[in-house]
Amino acid sequence: MSELHNAPARSHHRSKAILAIAAGTALLIGGTGTYALWSTSETLTAGPIETGDLDLALGTGVWSLDGLVTAPATVADPAAVRIVPGDVLTLTQPLDVTLVGDTIAADLSVVVNEIVPPALASYITVDFASADLGAATGPNAFRITPADAGTIATTVTLTFSQTTPDRVATNTTVDLTAIAFQLNQAAS
């Protein structure tokens, strides 16, 4: 009889051991542990990259006025100028352009939408040019690359047509503060 009495105790210890092993296996499979299966990884050795830059700063501009009966003269204060038909007012403006990037291109332009009142648009024209950049790519715009960056000489010219009739455009304001230079990264 003593043999029969000991058998259930062994079976009970075996059940506890099996349950412990099953619980440990479940923790390894679904928990934080892992099986010892092979794996590997490699860190890329390319090193860091840097972003480029796009910036625009104005140098010191110089204004000049050329009239029908006067020689071109430097203008100290353009706000004091009173233009008349036949006058050409020119701003010589150096632009300090930063353009850094392996694939970057940008459009450099001058915005003059608000400078001339609509009633005068056919009598006063505004042109943007640069001897440093070659041909314009659009109205008052140039496409540039990092090779063009640095100090770029530009001119903005306001021409008051000498064919302006009668008293058209007398005592009218042309807002020079509305001239804005822009540098935008090209998208196409």
UniProtKB/TrEMBL annotation:
Source organism superkingdom: Bacteria
Protein name: Alternate-type signal peptide domain-containing protein
